[in-house]
């Protein structure tokens, strides 16, 4: 009788364990997730972010102890809103975009630089326009409601001592700006490929300047939610490490890397190889240079501060954010 009761008790315990719906392994996984080893990153379809897919495909994220959900989100506004609501834990975008987020009280903190535009963006103009100073009074198509193209254009004007008010700006997206120039509707346009190449093929147009004349100005970074960084510093460190390893893989295994990145971007190997000519990835060494240290900050600090000034002057933000809160140098050094 005692033996029957013992068997019944054991059986009952097993049933109760099964009803809990959670195995030891599942419980361990749940514990890992609560500590932030699994998180979501908002990314647009941009070749500069493509090494993230190398990290995913080649198991680099997994090797470094993290699981990253790369969520395709084409709109900066959507990514910013998702981060504020903690539906994602970070997102990739340009430095000037993260400044806008911070100015709107979204706690975005830049932790690693990904890439810079190195000739992929440019200004196309009619052949009689030989310099930036010649743009004064001319109809220039440029997206004046923010974005990397506008920031870069303002930067170039500042370098030449030109007031933006001296430009007859026509507000439109970079793609529409390029199309408007090809259609001979404006005198110049701030745009990107393939419109730079198309402009050179017209009888009236040429490329006035490209982004390779201003290294580091159009640079993309990953910004993470401040709370996530505070609670999961080792996870953020693993993300940064994974990026560096993915870029290194591209350098040493180009053919395989191009296949992976091309698939992620919806391009052939040749197409993405051509697209990457206008991009420079930031490896560990370049990141150390770009970030610098808190005591001796690099270019990222200067450009973040300049972005805040530009956007405030253009009334795209109501206040300048604290740049010190916008950059975390600890994951690079």
What's the short story on this structure?
With about 325 residues, the protein is an alpha/beta fold.
Annotate the secondary structure layout.
Layout: H1 2-19, H2 24-34, E1 38-43, H3 51-57, H4 60-63, E2 67-72, H5 76-84, E3 90-94, H6 95-103, E4 108-117, E5 121-126, E6 139-142, H7 148-159, E7 168-171, H8 174-182, E8 188-192, H9 195-200, E9 205-210, E10 219-225, H10 226-231, H11 233-252, H12 254-265, H13 269-275, E11 279-281, H14 284-291, H15 299-313, H16 323-326
Parallel strand pairs: 1-2, 1-3, 6-7, 6-8
Antiparallel strand pairs: 3-10, 4-10, 4-11, 5-8, 5-9
Amino- and carboxy-terminal Cα gap:
69 Å
CATH class assignment of the largest domain: Alpha Beta
The CATH superfamily label of the largest domain reads Periplasmic binding protein-like II
Given the helix and strand composition, which structural class is it? alpha/beta
How many helices does DSSP assign?
16
Give the strand content: 15-25%
What multimeric state do the chains show? single chain
Helix content: 40-55%
* Total beta strands: 11
Overall mean pLDDT stands at: 90
Q: Which runs of at least 5 residues are low in confidence (pLDDT < 50)?
A: 1-34
Overall domain count = 2
Q: Write down the secondary-structure element order.
A: HHEHHEHEHEEEHEHEHEEHHHHEHHH
Note down, in words, how this protein is organized.
The chain contains 16 helices and eleven strands. The chain is an alpha/beta fold and 333 residues long. The chain has two domains: 191 residues, 3-Layer(aba) Sandwich (D-Maltodextrin-Binding Protein, domain 2); 93 residues, Periplasmic binding protein-like II (D-Maltodextrin-Binding Protein, domain 2, 3-Layer(aba) Sandwich). A six-stranded mixed sheet has the order 2-1-3-10-4-11, with helices on both faces.
């Amino acid at each position: 009788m005692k033996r029957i009761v013992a068997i019944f008790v054991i059986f009952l315990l097993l049933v109760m364990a099964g009803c809990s719906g959670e195995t030891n392994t599942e419980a361990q996984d749940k514990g890992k997730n609560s500590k932030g080893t699994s998180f979501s990153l908002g990314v647009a379809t941009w070749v500069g972010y493509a090494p993230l897919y190398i990290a995913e495909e080649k198991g680099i994220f997994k090797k470094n102890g993290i699981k990253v959900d790369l969520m395709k989100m084409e709109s900066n506004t959507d990514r910013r809103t998702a981060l504020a609501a903690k539906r994602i834990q970070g997102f990739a975008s340009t430095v000037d975009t993260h400044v806008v987020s911070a100015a709107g009280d979204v706690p975005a903190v830049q932790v690693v630089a990904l890439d810079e535009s190195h000739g992929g963006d440019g200004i196309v103009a009619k052949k009689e326009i030989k310099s930036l100073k010649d743009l004064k009074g001319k109809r220039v198509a440029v997206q004046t409601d923010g974005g990397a193209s506008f920031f870069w254009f303002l930067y170039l004007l500042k370098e030449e001592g030109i007031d933006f008010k001296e430009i007859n700006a026509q507000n439109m997206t970079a793609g529409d700006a390029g199309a408007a120039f090809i259609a001979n509707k404006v005198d110049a346009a701030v745009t990107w490929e393939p419109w730079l190449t198309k402009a050179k093929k017209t009888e009236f147009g040429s490329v006035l300047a490209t982004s390779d004349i201003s290294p580091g100005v159009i640079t993309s970074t990953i910004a993470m939610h401040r709370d996530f960084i505070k609670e999961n510093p080792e996870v953020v460190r693993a993300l940064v490490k994974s990026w560096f390893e993915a870029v290194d893989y591209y350098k040493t295994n180009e053919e395989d890397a191009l296949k992976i990145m091309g698939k992620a971007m919806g391009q052939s190997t040749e197409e993405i190889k051509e697209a990457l000519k206008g991009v420079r990835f930031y490896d560990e060494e370049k990141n150390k240079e770009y970030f610098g240290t808190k005591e001796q900050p690099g270019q990222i600090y200067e450009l973040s501060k300049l972005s805040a000034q530009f956007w405030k002057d253009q009334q795209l933000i109501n206040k300048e954010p604290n740049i010190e809160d916008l950059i975390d140098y600890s994951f690079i050094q």
